[in-house]
């Protein structure tokens, strides 16, 4: 008999539905050169957070000098930038 669980996390084959290999992600930059409107200069922004949403990868960037931040969502070369 094949093991299963009552909470639905195990399939009939006894394999957990959460036991899938993670997708290989491209190298993620931790820094970004970008214009900061609060500092009125080009600054090195640092990645504060990132997540994958239905539109692509959503990344929050922050300026360490003034804490100005913006969000960039990109998918296959197309980008939406909240700082523009």
From TrEMBL:
<dbReference type="Pfam" id="PF25208">
    <property type="entry name" value="DUF7838"/>
</dbReference>
<dbReference type="InterPro" id="IPR057160">
    <property type="entry name" value="DUF7838"/>
</dbReference>
<feature type="domain" description="DUF7838">
    <location>
        <begin position="28"/>
        <end position="82"/>
    </location>
</feature>
<protein>
    <recommendedName>
        <fullName>DUF7838 domain-containing protein</fullName>
    </recommendedName>
</protein>
């Amino acid at each position: 008999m094949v093991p299963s669980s009552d909470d639905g996390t195990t399939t009939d084959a006894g394999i957990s539905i959460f036991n899938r290999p993670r997708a290989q992600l491209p190298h993620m930059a931790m820094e970004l050169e970008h214009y900061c409107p609060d500092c009125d200069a080009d600054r090195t922004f640092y990645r504060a957070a990132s997540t994958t949403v239905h539109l692509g990868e959503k990344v929050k960037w922050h300026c360490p000098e003034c804490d100005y931040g913006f969000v960039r969502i990109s998918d296959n070369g197309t980008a939406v930038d909240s700082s523009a």
